[in-house]
Design goal:
This protein is of the alpha+beta class and 206 residues long. Helix content is 34%, strand content 34%. Strand 3 and strand 4 form a beta hairpin.
């Protein structure tokens, strides 16, 4: 019996020494490394959670802006504030959305293209401003919910057809301006906002 007890004591002592030896293997540097890894994993999880929250907020914001834009277009009370313009020769320039736009307010439309920040231009804000009367307004919505709006604008300095394409669920839009008496087609891209929410600056019309 004593031999059995002695044998058990030896085994227990051996196990204790093994555990102490394993613990001793975790040097301070290894412990710091483990702590750093745990902190990194925690920060990554927090970053993913924040990113997902921002994505949801952005989607909600885009959705609200899209609903407002669709309603404004339907009511003929909107402004397409452009951030870039592409000309017939293929040149694309980024522009100030407060000075390059297409606006519709009831039966009046304004087309202002101001690609220059260095020259006043005919309108005083770096380009050309023309306004006229809207006619033939048509609005079509495809199966995916994308909206296409087309109308004519006729005035002293303009006689053109304008076609606006707006993607469903957002207020991003593009417009093509087709002059009726020449082939100087212009394309603009930007965001549609209700007329009352726009801060564009209208220059002097031709």
């Amino acid at each position: 019996m004593k031999k059995v007890l002695q044998t058990l004591m030896v085994i227990v002592a051996g196990l204790s020494l093994a555990v102490l030896d394993m613990t001793a293997q975790n040097t301070p540097a290894q412990i710091r490394r483990q702590q750093e890894m745990q902190k990194w994993h925690q920060e990554m999880e927090e970053f993913k959670a924040r990113s997902e929250q921002r994505r949801e907020i952005n989607e909600l914001t885009d959705s609200i802006a899209g609903v407002q834009a669709a309603a404004a277009v339907k009511n003929q009370d909107f402004v397409l504030e452009a951030d870039q313009v592409t000309f017939k020769n293929g040149n694309t320039v980024f522009v100030n959305s407060s000075t390059t736009f297409v606006s519709v307010k009831g039966n009046r439309a304004v087309v202002q293209i101001s690609p220059s920040n260095f020259s006043a231009g005919p309108n005083g804000v770096g380009g050309v401003t023309v306004d006229g009367t809207v006619s033939g307004m048509q609005r079509m919505i495809d199966r995916k919910g994308n909206t296409t709006v087309s109308f004519n604008v006729m005035g002293i300095g303009i006689n053109a057809q304008i076609e606006i394409y707006m993607t469903q669920g957002t207020n991003r839009a593009s417009a093509t301006i087709y002059p009726n008496f020449n082939s100087n087609t212009v394309w603009i891209e930007g965001e549609i906002v209700p007329y009352a929410n726009s801060d564009v600056f209208e220059g002097m019309s031709l």
